[in-house]
Design brief:
Length: about 325
């Protein structure tokens, strides 16, 4: 009987010793793993990579139920030759008084991005947001990106467009200064087929900047592209301005997005009004203008829709003021 008890006590002692040792080892491994993660975090902060961003930035799933759009993250994915330099300059001037920072993203003339390039841009922007830790505004020429496809909140998108023919004239006027021929006048007057803007390759269309990177977005007069662009504007763009209605645009921006645009109207009148008021529009033959309008049917439909939306917002704004 004594031998049996002695044997049981011996095994019990061995069991307790092994259990304690195992717990200690597991805890030690956990501490080492935690320290390793901390070191990796510091290392990856200094240089951007998709892997590091996915690790340190919480996804929408991890954050739980949230709005798709971040109100303290502004993105002007500006359309070329539509006066966006005015908005960029105003954003830069307002950043001090409104307590945010404006970041000009590099990317050259690359508007269309492959999916991997879209993902890289999304995580680059979130890397900057994480480091700055204050509200930020960004700008870059790039087609619309749906950030939720990469499990991130979308920015508050804004943009500025203009009359499609005037946009073409601005581009051709620039080309003339570089010594290039007025392509649009030449080909339209000679009634050749290479003025059809097929797939948007000849003329940088406006609709893709709101539609996205689907190949259909870049097709001229594609109804799916037009409807997709409208849907994205309604959901993600609180304001899309019109260059020909710049004063109304600035008024709506200050009303709808006051955090970034408080004081923008006064600043524009004080610093920029005289500069941009005196800019002359390039001349164009009426027959060329007529042909261009006939060609850019959906571009004009989108332009008129945006303009109508802007004035509806103005009516609502004054209705709100009157109700108070």
């Amino acid at each position: 009987m004594r031998r049996r008890l002695k044997t049981q006590w011996m095994w019990l002692t061995v069991f307790i010793t092994v259990s304690f040792s195992g717990t200690f080892l597991l805890r030690g491994n956990h501490v080492r793993e935690f320290q390793s993660n901390r070191t990796t975090g510091r290392t990856t902060e200094s240089s951007f990579s998709l892997a590091s961003m996915k690790h340190v930035t919480k996804s929408l799933a991890e954050l739980g139920k949230m709005d798709d759009v971040n109100r303290h993250f502004l993105f002007l994915n500006h359309v070329p030759k539509c006066g966006s330099e005015i908005l960029i300059l105003l954003l830069q001037k307002l950043q001090g008084s409104n307590n945010y920072r404006h970041v000009r993203l590099t990317g050259g003339n690359k508007r269309y991005l492959m999916r991997s390039q879209q993902e890289a841009l999304v995580f680059e922007m979130y890397d900057i947001i994480r480091k700055e830790a204050i509200p930020l505004s960004f700008d870059r020429h790039v087609y619309f990106i749906n950030f939720t496809k990469f499990d991130r909140q979308l920015p508050t998108y804004i943009n500025l467009i203009r009359d499609p023919v005037d946009k073409i004239l601005s581009r051709t006027s620039y080309n003339d200064r570089l010594g290039k021929k007025d392509f649009y006048s030449k080909c339209l007057m000679r009634k050749k087929n290479n003025c059809n803007f097929k797939n948007g390759k000849t003329y940088d269309l406006t609709i893709p900047y709101f539609c996205g990177h689907d190949p259909r977005c870049m097709m001229l007069n594609n109804d799916w592209a037009l409807q997709t662009a409208k849907a994205n504007v309604e959901k993600y763009y609180p304001v899309v301005g019109v260059l020909e209605e710049l004063n109304v645009t600035l008024e709506i921006l200050e009303y709808k997005i006051p955090y970034f645009f408080k004081g923008i109207q006064d600043l524009y009148k004080k610093d920029l009004l005289k500069v941009y008021r005196n800019k002359k529009k390039p001349k164009i033959l009426k027959i060329v203008q007529k042909k261009l309008k006939e060609t850019l049917v959906k571009e004009y439909e989108f332009y008129e829709w945006i303009k109508s939306r802007l004035f509806r917002q103005l009516q609502i704004m004054y209705g709100d003021h009157n109700s108070h």
